[in-house]
Amino acid sequence: MPSAALIIAAVVIVAILTLVAWSSARRRRTEGLRHSARLQEQFGSEYDRTLAETGDARSAEAELTARQERVSGFDIRHLADDEGKRFDDEWLVVKASFVDDPSTAVRDADALLGRVMLARGYPVADFEQRSADISVDHSPVLAHYRAAHEIALRDAQGQATTEDLRQAVISSHVLFSELVENLVPVEVVAETPVLVAAQ
Questions:
Q1: Mean pLDDT across the chain
Q2: What pLDDT score was predicted for residue 32?
């Protein structure tokens, strides 16, 4: 009889341990799915891009989480009104210079973006690091920044048309507006032909 009681107790203990293990695994899986969903929502197309680069969700999510942790250590701040006004004035100069020298306008737009990022508290490193840092808080407009950079690279090789350069400046302006916190919807900025240049 005592051995039957021991067997029953052992079965109950195993059943409880199995239930606890199953419950814990389910909770971890649910938390993992929630974490994945939050990353997908926050990073949008950058999540997909990182997934394509790394080849698997675990690596992509580790990369995006590392970006979040890196940027959380920055002292990101809003621009003062006078800083925003000064940067807006600089943008108007870049925009006006496009007609006479589109290539220089593209380079000046990128340099201005670097100064705005620095003023906001982002370290200004190489393009890939800047893109990774910006992706944490400004992922919806990151594709514009990447497009402008790609066109600038093509221009450096003599392979960009004036229309390409115009698009680069427009794409740079999308990120610029977000960083300077101009309250213009991204769709309006992206669709507005802000530049007219002679071919």
A1: 85
A2: 64
Distance CA 46, CA 50 (A): 6
**pTM of the predicted structure, to 2 decimals:** 0.73
Ordered DSSP codes for 100-164: T-HHHHHHHHHHHHHHHHHHHT-----HHHHHHHHHHHHHHHHHHHHHHHHHHHHHHTT---HHH
Residues with Cβ within 8 Å of residue 158, at least 6 apart in sequence: none
Counting Cβ atoms within 10 Å, is residue 44 exposed (0-12), middle (13-18) or buried (19+)? middle
Indicate the DSSP class of residue 44. T
Distance from C-alpha of 186 to C-alpha of 176, rounded to nearest angstrom = 11
Residue 47 corresponds to which tokens in the numbers above? 């999540």
Give the model confidence (pLDDT) of 45-94 as tens digits: 899 999 999 999 999 999 999 999 999 999 999 999 999 999 999 999 99
